[in-house]
Amino acid sequence: MWDEEFERILRDRLPFLPPDEPLEADLDLTANGLDSMGIVDLMVTLEREYDVRFGGDLLSLETFSTPAVLWKTVTALTSPAA
Amino acid sequence: MTSSADTAAATGAAGRTALVFPGMSALKYADVARFMLTNPIARRLREEADDALGYCLADHYRDAEEDYAESAQAAFLLNCTALAQWAVGAFGFTPVACAGPSFGAKAAACFSGALGFADTIRLTVELARCEQDYFRTEHTDVVTQSFVRTPEEGLRELLAGMDARGQWYEVSCHVDRDFFMVSLREPGLDAFTAGIRALGGLPLYAMRPPMHCAAFAPLRERAAAVLDGFTFADPALPVVRDQDGAAVTTAAGVREMLLDGFVRPVRWPDAVRGLRDLAVTRVCVAGPDTLWGRVPCTVEAFDVLAASPRAALRPRRYAPWAPPAPVTALAPVSAAASVKG
């Protein structure tokens, strides 16, 4: 499960997700208001907050499809082997 | 500097305000239906649109199977127009200019007074049919790929490589300093997006039909024949051309701007510069916008007032919109002297 910071960052960019609704792992982020500008902003913020850099095949809209996929990516980028 | 609609209105942010009509993005009927069906201005415009088209626009839009169906395009135009009229009354400003990147040029032409609303609705539908007919047989393998976070210098090198390999492409849209759209043949798309990723860029969407390419000159000719059926008037407000930022003030200029949209790239940073040259300090983005009012070159140059369907559904005091008065003077003002940067 992701940390509080990740959830806060993500929720800030999901205008259609009511604050009292849970952030489900397989939530469709696009359907909840994450558009292209939101994706760019989200990526830059995650890079700054987690000191990582999205690159290669991770630079894809699929990376930003659900909280689970995105957190898995962030986790992989922050792991020592990354 | 971006301010929400409410904040800007509450603080009475003054200055010269321009209306910006966004380029069209895919928009579900459900996302705009409440505004389109209940807002009094939208209702009035729907009646006018239904009379002009001879069918119920809202019903056709609801049942449309494609994101850019003619009814979806007409509905987008209607909603942008209604939101502009609503914003002028709700926020109490007198626009000094207007602009519209890509599809938004039609709404800008309409709002400026160069073309009546009913005519603009008919024009939108007729151009949609013209375009659909053209791309059914022409350039069937061409897509327009958008991508962001790509430095222009790196992009230039990537495109130089395509030149060297004899691969056709055209830059269709400069959205911002590191945000572009390039049209190319689909077989080369994977290699192109891989090149974008290698530059650290994020490929976004591949759009069909493609847009804004010199190669589409025959489409421009067909569109010119469509436009021959409409009479343009001199705009009452200067229309800042999305292709180079020039201020268009004549009927012929508006017509050419719409036609050139088929064959010339959108250069939004130039349009921003054109608005600044008119001493514009604030833009009101009228319509369901996911892009133009949010990119850095816009928010760094202006206060941005978002006139979205959601904003219009909030209760608010309202003063009715009146058509803009004719332009009496169009004196560019030094941006350095009077526009915040």
UniProtKB/TrEMBL annotation, chain A:
This is Acyl carrier protein. InterPro entries: ACP-like_sf, PP-bd_ACP. Pfam families: PP-binding (PF00550). It comes from the Bacteria. SUPFAM superfamilies: ACP-like. Residues 1-78 form the Carrier domain. Transmembrane segments: none annotated.
From TrEMBL, chain B:
Its EC number is 2.3.1.39. SUPFAM superfamilies: FabD/lysophospholipase-like (SSF52151). It is an enzyme of class 2 (transferase). Keywords: Acyltransferase, Transferase. Residues 146-207 form the Malonyl-CoA-[acyl-carrier-protein] transacylase small domain. It catalyses: holo-[ACP] + malonyl-CoA = malonyl-[ACP] + CoA. This is [acyl-carrier-protein] S-malonyltransferase.
